[in-house]
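Notes, p. 3: input format for complexes.
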Amino acid sequence: MTVNDTPGDGMDRELTLMAVHAHPDDEVIGTGGILAKYTAEGIRTVLVTCTNGEQGDGPGGVKPGEPGHDDAAVAERRLAELRESVAHLGIDHLELLGYRDSGMDGWDGNGHPDAFANVPVEKAAARLAALMERYRPQVIVTYDENGNYGHPDHIQAHRIAVAAAEMTGIPDKFYYTAVPREGIRQMFEFMRANGMTPDDFELPDDFGTPDELITSVVDVSPYVENKLKALEAHASQGENIPFLRMPPEAQHQAFSREYFIRTTSRVAAPDKEDDLFAGLR
Ligand SMILES: [Zn+2]
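Output follows (281 residues plus zinc ion):
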């Protein structure tokens, strides 16, 4: 048996959280609170961002594919915004895989040979595995197999994170981010009651994660301001971030807890937990 196969060997090494995300700005809404909280608790935090966000909005809200959309300039701007966001959240290490943003499902960018979603999983996973070897995170967080909402780069990030975890055997606990269905319903009701949604808009019944599947709920309410500042740092994508236009009480409600599905644990931890490091410290 190698050291890596020993359950609980995480207790002997520096506590480390690694979040694997697809684009600059993805780090904030679902994991910004845990990144800020665990950093504040002295746990080492590592954010891996897989793409440069080339398919985001350009200056003046120019969409990808429209005249004047400059991929290189968009990437440069978004990576600068990402560094600012990382500073607001206090994240210890930012690692960029530097792949090309594939764009939303169905966009022209999907066909680009260098697009992240077109990179063979084992190739990108090997690079992520090298980062896992370097930081040896006990806890890894990424998206579910649907990338949480179907974006090809989020699905690819999920695939490489799962593959790298299997290749290295390093993480003790592995999580998917989740958006609880009941929470979304409450948010939607709040927005409707406050005239913030179109009258004819209906929330699909299957949106979000059924609450009973959620294993881990982390209170990050002391870090809501950090999340908001981090989100504001991604100003060039502001048009795509409706949270920035919600009233403060709705932002607080939306941002004060983060939800996860634990898919693997090699340490003893409660079925329902409020700490991703439960069993590790
Ligand atoms: Zn994304």
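Residues 1-8 have pLDDT under 50 and may be disordered.
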